[in-house]
Amino acid sequence: MSKIAIKPIVLKENVNFSTEKSRVLISGPKGNLFFDLPEGIKAESSKGQIIVSQNNKNDEKTRALFGLTRAILSNLVKGVTDGFDKKLELTGVGYRAQAAGNTLTLSVGYSHPVIIKAEDGINFTVEENVITVSGIDKTRVGDIAAKVRAIRPPEPYKGKGIKYVGERVRRKAGKAAKAIGVAGGAK
After folding, report:
1. Across all residues in the chain, what is the average pLDDT?
2. Are 31 and 135 in contact (CB under 8 A)?
3. What spatial distance separates the first Cα and last Cα of the chain, rounded to whole Å?
4. According to the model, what pLDDT value does residue 180 have?
5. Domain stops at, among 54, 81, 108
6. Which residues contact 66 (CB under 8 A, 6 or more apart)?
7. Cα(21)–Cα(11) distance, rounded to whole angstroms?
8. Consecutive H or E run containing 106
């Protein structure tokens, strides 16, 4: 049995939990999120906690989804109370980012600026070449941050590009110097 799945999820005072058939709705101060429970797994609220359980403990399909479901519900509760953010760092001469409203404009060495429009619930902020992608849904924040990083991933020679804050880019040495004395032909 999963050690993570049996831990109850603590609901803070501003968070509401409700279920309709197999859909779980969690609402809080930052917004509302929902999740469709897999078949064979149920979630119940009691005494300010969410308890996830299996209908049949010996079912292999639900055993595989048991801990995952609990982790997703925990992320939904955290999202509606605190929210999530990912920070990306621009490295390179002339690389700039500007956030205006729900759009992010990147100048990262292409002949044209790259414009990214945020989905509903996603916000961009830029401070000193650090782009912050924030929102209440952890998966959407991570997806948008990965799309921004994919525009110009960090390259291994000079380290230029867009990387996550704290990400370590493995650097390579440049071209090896020509071997001394070998000038192209046998003597």
Report:
1. 88
2. no
3. 73
4. 45
5. 81
6. 1, 2, 5, 41, 52, 54
7. 21
8. strand 103-107
Query: What tens digit of pLDDT does each residue of 95-112 get?
Result: 999 999 889 999 999 999
The residue assigned the tokens 């079912």 is: 59
Question: Of 74-83, 145-154, 170-179, where does mean pLDDT reach its minimum?
Answer: 170-179
CATH of the domain at 136: 3.90.930.12
- The pLDDT of 23-38, averaged and rounded, is 92
∠ CA 30-7-87, nearest 5°, is: 40
pLDDT mean over 10-25: 90
Structure tokens at 71: 């982790």
| The token pair that represents 105 in the structure block | 């404009």
Q: Could you tell me the residue range of the domain that residue 93 belongs to?
A: 84-164
Give the ranges where 21-178 is alpha helix by DSSP (H): 60-81, 138-151
SS3 content of the chain, % helix, strand, coil (to 5): 20, 35, 45
